[in-house]
């Protein structure tokens, strides 16, 4: 049976499985024997989404109802009246970060007690990881020109944005590799995957935060694409050969990240970035890190630095463990 749907393009699938539609013209044909209901998902109304966002903001994330059991959720596409009410513009979409994975929320004391630390490399693998990071950092500093001249907001944002596009790669590659190993070998994962995915998302949130203040241009985006293609390829092969090298590499990368954000905080305290002491935190960042309503960019950078220090600890720990050891970090820790 051929089922033909007249849909309008711009259909957006949310991670929680609901579909929010933007209607414009277009046609999709499904020439399979699938019954109609099998490839359509219940649609959430704008009100449903807003209610859930409100509950999320109030910290009732764990008590959200199962949407499949809600009567007011759409059960089929036949109701054209309701379809009209599902029209949504970009402004209607849930706020950035609403569906974020669990992650640590730092106390005031934790935010201010982050220190620059270094784990001395032990053995060939550690040394290889350490010197790889040092070479990468030196090359990046020279190419980006960050060290020359005075720092300013533009320079900081460029540096943060570029580095965070790279920092989000290892967790995702490592999680995917362990996931595929688990499937292929038909063995359990020992609980590492969620921590790695949380790290990847957390790094991506650092990127999303910086993007609230600056949108990169064409050349910058081209550089990011080239860097991502290269780094994903090299890191993926490296993870297949030596997960220990990769986690140690990330551990040393995070040591550098803590240094970078500490330097940024110093610049905010008494350098060229003092306006970030009063620059309001982007709404998304305030929500994601559960900051005070009057939080500033300084508070955001403190939270990001605490995240990096956490990644430093997690990856040095994972690098020192056997692949079959249980992950000591529970979700959100
Ligand atoms: Fe980061
Ligand atoms: Fe990090």
From TrEMBL:
Region ranges (Disordered): 59-96
Keyword Membrane: yes
Biased composition (Basic and acidic residues): 59-82
Cofactor: Fe cation
A Pfam cross-reference name: AOX
Protein keywords: Electron transport, Iron, Membrane, Metal-binding, Mitochondrion, Mitochondrion inner membrane, Oxidoreductase, Respiratory chain, Transit peptide, Transmembrane, Transmembrane helix, Transport
Alphabetical list of CDD domains matching this protein: AOX (cd01053)
UniProt-listed Gene3D superfamilies: Alternative oxidase
Protein name per Swiss-Prot or TrEMBL: Alternative oxidase
Organism: Dreissena polymorpha (Zebra mussel)
